[in-house]
Amino acid sequence: MITGERMAAVDENAAALGVPRKQLMESSGHAVARAIRTIADSGTRVAVVAGRGNNGGDAFVATRFLDEYEVTTILLGRAEVIGTDIARENWEALQQADYDVRQVTDSSGFELPEADVIVDAMLGTGISGDLREPAATAAWAINEADATVVAVDVPSGFDADQGDHAENRIEADHVVTFHDTKPGLGDLAADVTVADIGIPPAAERFVGPGDVDLARPASRDGRAFVIGGGPYTGAPALASQAALRAGMELSFVAAPESVAGEIQGYAEDLIVQPYESDRLSPDQVDDLVDTAERHDDVIVLGPGLGTADETLEAARLFLESYTGPAVVDADALAVVPDLETDATLVCTPNRRELARMGGPETDSLCETADEVEAFAAELGHVVLAKGVDDVATDGERTRICCSGAPGMKVGGTGDLLAGIVAALLEHAGPLDAAAAAAYVNGRAGERLADDGSMGFLASEMLAEIPAVLWGVADE
Ligand SMILES: NC(=O)C1=CN([C@@H]2O[C@H](COP(=O)(O)OP(=O)(O)OC[C@H]3O[C@@H](n4cnc5c(N)ncnc54)[C@H](O)[C@@H]3O)[C@@H](O)[C@H]2O)[C@@H](O)CC1
Ligand SMILES: [K+]
């Protein structure tokens, strides 16, 4: 099962792996044609009704594979408004080669040709809301027609993310969906065929630019609240700055009075909130929970906190009463096993911390991904295990991230990662945020390691984060 949204991400990852979308469109169209051959004898009249998105593009391809049928292909709209280059190229291929193609510019001009099979390629996973004109009129005519309706990917009017249906949706007899079934498709009164369109399994398993598409902030929003510092001061400063670089509007650091000035001194962009103590202790917990919940903050708990008993006790108490999203990193990870919490956690252990939490001991996270998954399932939280490769898992779904460079072994890169996860949690679910953050952090390091450099600093990676996060599609 895959949502339409995730499908688009996987498709982007496939392109990055060398299988471009046009190739997937060719496979999709071919799969639709194969399905029609199993349903209808050669010579049958087929009407293809296509929209101006890639769903329509799939159907233009299908037309080329249906030479033994009497096919009429109708484009809803003018050719100039076809939404993507690949769909347009496939439309032009039909026009140039003298297929029976028609364009309908408004709903009054829509006339459904006599047909025994109708291919519904008006809308796929790109739909929002009820069908608008001229698709609405076309859907009505298709539903009224005495013909077998074959829907491309999903029946037009079906939302492949939620499984909802528009009032004026297509009632399909057959659905040829691509790569994997979509939520709610099985509940329809239609035969559903899942067609393999040649997406490499790595496009799902390995984190790529498509995962960043899913988590990229579209607006500058949110408040990161880093609870860290005490024995160390650089870690909370890096995490909180990384959150700003990854799209947060404000970044707060709650830190002991004794080090607050030092943390502020690293960056004027941070809002440092001192508390009266040399280190985090249970006395501060109520205030911290109250502040975080009042402002809908995303918490980063751990960077630079140290391992004093009272600090770990405070970390535990905080997570027991806090109910929002939180990234748990570094020393605070020790309290997560056996924790009772309603918070949404992303735990970001390195290999050592993972083993200490009771997870697998391993030299290669990538090879141990299944064990990390089982550990996350047992823990009941998303785990982003950090190493040469990173493993992000919610206990059911697992993604491996191979971006990064050897120079990133330097101290502080994990703090950056925690801050990036926090920023992406403002816009995405915990697994998507964790996977995308790992990719972004690794790419930020790669940008500085271009010449094989081992000498860059975590603080220098900060400035690379925006370019990776908002520029990744153009790389
Ligand atoms: N993502 C993938 O991996 C693949 C996708 N493919 C095809 O691409 C499809 C998705 O393509 P697109 O993203 O271009 O989206 P669609 O082809 O579903 O439609 C997008 C267009 O529909 C319009 N639209 C949206 N809501 C509407 C409404 N309620 N009424 C009327 N018009 C509306 C939009 O303005 C947009 O131009 C899939 O369903 C599938 O058929 C395949 O080519 C193969 C691979
Ligand atoms: K469709």
Could you explain the architecture of this structure?
With 475 residues, the protein is of the alpha/beta class. Helices cover 38% and strands 16% of the residues. The protein has helices spanning 4-16, 21-39, 54-64, 85-96, 135-144, 202-205, 209-215, 234-245, 257-266, 285-294, 309-321, 351-356, 369-379, 413-425, 430-448, 458-461, 465-471, and strands at residues 45-50, 70-76, 101-104, 117-121, 148-152, 174-178, 191-195, 223-227, 250-256, 271-275, 298-301, 325-328, 344-347, 382-385, 390-393, 398-401. Strands 10-9-8-11-12-13-14-15-16 form a nine-stranded mixed sheet, sandwiched between helices. Strands 3-2-1-4-5-6-7 form a seven-stranded parallel sheet, sandwiched between helices. The relative contact order is 0.10. Bound molecules: ligand NAX and potassium ion. Residues 55, 120-124, 151-156 line the site of potassium ion (K). In the C-terminal section; belongs to the NnrD/CARKD family.
What topology emerges from the helices and strands here?
Blueprint: H1 4-16, H2 21-39, E1 45-50, H3 54-64, E2 70-76, H4 85-96, E3 101-104, E4 117-121, H5 135-144, E5 148-152, E6 174-178, E7 191-195, H6 202-205, H7 209-215, E8 223-227, H8 234-245, E9 250-256, H9 257-266, E10 271-275, H10 285-294, E11 298-301, H11 309-321, E12 325-328, E13 344-347, H12 351-356, H13 369-379, E14 382-385, E15 390-393, E16 398-401, H14 413-425, H15 430-448, H16 458-461, H17 465-471
Parallel strand pairs: 1-2, 1-4, 2-3, 4-5, 5-6, 6-7, 8-9, 8-11, 9-10, 11-12, 12-13, 13-14
Antiparallel strand pairs: 14-15, 15-16
This protein binds ligand NAX and potassium ion.
